[in-house]
Amino acid sequence: MGQCELVSISRSSFYFTGIDESALNLTLMRLIDEQFLQTPFYGSRQMMRYLNRLGYTVGRKYVRRLVRRMGLSALYQTPTTSVKHLENKVYPYLLRDRIIDQPNQVWCADITYIPMRRGFLYLVAMLDWCSRKVLSWRLSNTMEASFCVEALEEVIEKFGLPQIINTDQGSQFTSLDWIETVEQAGAKVSMDGQGRWIDNVFIKRLWRSLKYECVYLHAWECGSQTRSGIDDWMVFYNAERPHSTLGGRTPNEAYDGKPLTRQPMAAA
């Protein structure tokens, strides 16, 4: 178990091959995932029509099952179709009209689906809102809250504590373990509005970049390969990938407070 702990992945995820899903399901899930990045507002009916146009004869219930299996809760905008736990408390969104101009003011967290050649994993990441720096991430082959809490505890130990931690209303982030960890550490809990994927837009953009620049370019066989590939990209993203919204700085540079480099003005 020691080697798995060193790379922040559970033993089951390290050896996971996803043999419980058929080749057809994995193909459909990959297509749904790609389209979801383009149109996160699609409900199961629209996603079914999209797959039908590609030549796959699937019904709405079938598509809904796959979407839920993937954990794409933001796909639905109606209160009755979210995957949130109905008994868990939902907290208000605290970031509207708030000026966020310093690292460690606000962190956000989210979960996404990561396809492999013969299966899939779930990825959780913690992002600093101001600098866009990925502070922590973990892989799991289940949607249980424990791997999210582990990522949260890791990031608090490494980087201290923000004022606010924002998430969606998924069951992992409304769980007692997650809420207690946030509140006992001294941060405030903030949650996106129902179906308001735009409320956590920066981490949604992270998923888009990760998948198009890394995940979709590979066909990883197992958890260890997936973890290694994502780790390489995360290092590149934080240390080498400049952002126009950060004035051309990388997330690491913005988080560390490196000043903006003024570009010389072109001659008239």
Q: Domains counted in the coordinates: how many? A: 2
Cα gyration radius (Å):
19 Å
The SSE order reads HHHHHEEEHEHHEHHH
Distance between the termini: 64 Å
> What is the CATH third-level topology name of the largest domain?
Nucleotidyltransferase, domain 5
**Fourth CATH level, the homologous superfamily of the largest domain:** Ribonuclease H-like superfamily/Ribonuclease H
Q: Summarize the biggest pleated sheet.
A: 5 strands, mixed
Query: What does the average pLDDT come to?
Result: 84
Strand content: 5-15%
Number of strands: 5
How would you describe this structure to a colleague?
The chain has 268 residues and is an alpha/beta fold. The chain folds into two domains: 20-79; 106-255, Ribonuclease H-like superfamily/Ribonuclease H (Nucleotidyltransferase, domain 5). It has helices at 2-6, 11-15, 23-38, 44-53, 60-70, 146-159, 171-174, 176-185, 201-213, 223-239, 251-255; strands spanning 106-115, 120-128, 134-140, 164-167, 188-191. It has a five-stranded mixed sheet, with helices on both faces. A hairpin with a 5-residue loop joins strand 2 and strand 3. Helix 4 (44-53) crosses helix 5 and helix 6 (146-159) packs parallel to helix 8 (176-185). The chain is globular and about 50 Å long. The model is unreliable at 10-15, 74-83 and 264-268 (pLDDT under 50).
